[in-house]
Amino acid sequence: MEEKVGELWHRMITRAAETRYPEAAVHLEDIEQIMGVMFRALGGDGGLEVAAANATEHGARRGLLQRIAGSNRRVELAWRDEQSLRLPAVIDYFPERQLNHYLYTWLAALAVGDHQEEEAWLNKNQRLTIKTLHNYPGIAKRYAALVDAHLAERTPEDKLPPAEAAQEHAIRQALLEPGSVEKLPAAKRPPQPVPLWLHPFPPISAPSTSRAGDEEGERGQGETKEIEDMQRHKSERAKKPEQEDKGLITVRMENIFTWGEFANLDRGSEENEDLDSAADALKDMDNLSVSRDAKASAGKLRFDLDLPSEANDDLVLGEGILLPEWDFKKQKLIPDHCRIVPMMAADAQPRDLPETLRKTARKLRAQFQHLMPARIWHRGQQDGCEVDIDAYLRYATDRAAGHTSASDGLYKDLRVGARDLACLLLADLSLSTDTWVNNHARVIDVIRDSLYLFAESLAATGDQFAMYGFSSRKRDPVRVHQIKSFDEHYSGMIRGRIDAIKPGYYTRMGAAIRHSSELLKNQPSGRRLLLILTDGKPNDLDKYEGRYGIEDTRQAIHEARQLGLQPFCVTIDAKANDYLPHLFGTGSYVVIHKPSQLPRELPLLYVKLTA
């Protein structure tokens, strides 16, 4: 009974303290693509993706009911950084749904002019408001409606202490007449949040896509101990234990032959333990479990691990190929920055097409055979399968008339035409392909089936084609796996190499595209298609994560087009529409929303691209 009464009380007080309008809410996931298109159309940075903003504590004064209910502590405000435009996941500030939608469009337009300079929050948002209203006068009516609605929702000045009332007056004046307030008055508490403005202190210090081992943006400023001579360890990824186990050891110590426990290798800031002792403990462990910890660190141990997904049985085909990489901050190519390592599966054995794909392959081959150019007669040949009657009659008539003519070219031959087309398929074989798309298959399994059916289909047309896979571990090495070169015929050995593909490391896409472009540009065909198959955006362990990798990939695609190639991307990434328009442009990519359909869709897409 007590729990029931408490539940009813909580529900009643929370409802009474509610200042939002959930019935008029607009969700970012419903308009995310529209906001991205609008932001870029207004001149926003095309390399930014639209993502949901994190809720942060505002610290402003709350009403009595809100304090009792414990609500309204956090607020979602918009901001932008080098990688994303962050908008609230839900906007339900106003009782009218249209006003909530207007706020999304206003925030996207406001963020276009934000270049992240160091500037006071009040002055910055006034400047951005003036600039937005000047550049896009059509949005002025929406802004005026938003200001009126927002001022009606804010706490009145007469209900605030004097210092906070002065702050509130300044903010109201700045909303009504942007540029009229030079300074925000001081007060013990922060002012009420302004959802029409960008975040005063955006939480952009730690990227949301950080990875263990990242060379840039590492947490903490303390001592770092490099462990270079440590032998390889078996390892796995695991969750961090929620609390330290302080129970008694109830087994005899002589029965413990290995050491496998949680050790905080990313040393905590409050416990600045001896790094030498931690390194010795690390070397004594037989199995390492790697987890992530959000705490700052005062000292770090840096070392390499052999994770289970590493492919260590491939044959290296050469010493490596040095390629440049684009630095978007310096706006120039860094020469010889990446090293391509050509590889081939050493344990691949010739095999037949998997039984599960044979029925689909037969249908695709029948469809693709219609693309094969019809056989045509070549006349005037010195030899051939038949006598050319027309040429022979002309020759006999000339002889009867007393004219001498050569007897060459009295035959005709039936030959098959050729399509002036070459295609290179570049498949992403990064760690992310080890994830499951359903209860039956992983992404790598879907890619493998796609390569099988793609090769079967193109072999039926006679088109020149090659297939390569790639993954990377920083800029050296970028592993490029040869599955089929242009000089090889499709055979059981090629199918064996397809069967041998496995998840590798990360996705340094720019280097892989540049290497593939060099291979494809040497083909004499009039039309050359570079088909890129991936499941995510470019990334790697170093600074390639985020904007740097996006811009390098975009530059590599631009270089491919300058060589006369036709790049086209096929992806199963549900968020690809946030970044692929910036990389490939409209019409040069396609998103497969059901990854399990990729094996069937890929060959059919090739038909559309080459029709």
TrEMBL record:
Domain VWFA stretches: 420-609
CDD domains: vWA_norD_type (cd01454)
Domain of life: Bacteria
Biased composition annotated in UniProt, kind: Basic and acidic residues: 212-246
Biased composition (Pro residues): 188-205
Stretch list, region Disordered: 179-246
Protein name per UniProt: VWA domain-containing protein
Organism placement in taxonomy: Bacteria, Pseudomonadati, Pseudomonadota, Gammaproteobacteria, Chromatiales
